[in-house]
Write a structure and sequence with these properties.
The chain is built from 2 helices and 19 strands. The chain is mainly beta and about 200 residues long. Strands 1, 2, 4, 6, 7, 9, 10, 12, 13, 15, 16, 18 and 19 form a 13-stranded parallel beta sheet that branches. It has a 6-stranded parallel beta sheet with strand order 3-5-8-11-14-17. The longest helix has 16 residues. It is globular, with a radius of gyration of 16 Å.
Length: about 200
Amino acid sequence: MKKILIFLFLASNIFLKISHVYSNTIVLSPGESIQAAIDKAKNGDMITLREGKYIINQGLVVRNKQKLKIQSVGPVQIISTHYASPVISLHNSHLVILQECEFRYQNPGKAKAAGVIVFQNTIRCAVISCDISHGLNGIHAVNNKILALIQNNIHHNQKTGIYLSGSHGVLVQNNTVSDNGKGLEKINVTELDLKNNDIRDNRSQ
């Protein structure tokens, strides 16, 4: 039990403190390519999005990145018109943080991808203070180690707000999960810590 508590403490704090150690910042304005910035980013970089709407016609992909943060300055909406892929997906990456952005599809009900945000085979990644809506699943996470979902608003997704499968060490804290098909679904998840979440008004609790 002591080992589990230490593990979850590290998971909840590492993401909130790591912003002090980024080596370079890439600043974007609406109309500029987020995917190009992701592709250009080196390990240890931060991508900062200025206030506004970012309309994307292909899902954003973060692959094989280490210590990357994508955050906003002011309200930011990342809106996808490509319904067959996640708005953003993270694969084989380590210490990637998504913070203070809204992720959604342009037309509710058309999404075909597994989730608005998809995590697959990641280590120590996080979503913090984001708004996630209008997908099949809000967050779809498969085969991850140490994943933190903190202070997000996850709503109006067709199936599940948070779907977790085959993952180890997941912290779900201070999230509002409402008006989805189901609030939270977990399959083969070990060391899951649920803290102070408001899971309500989902069609199947």
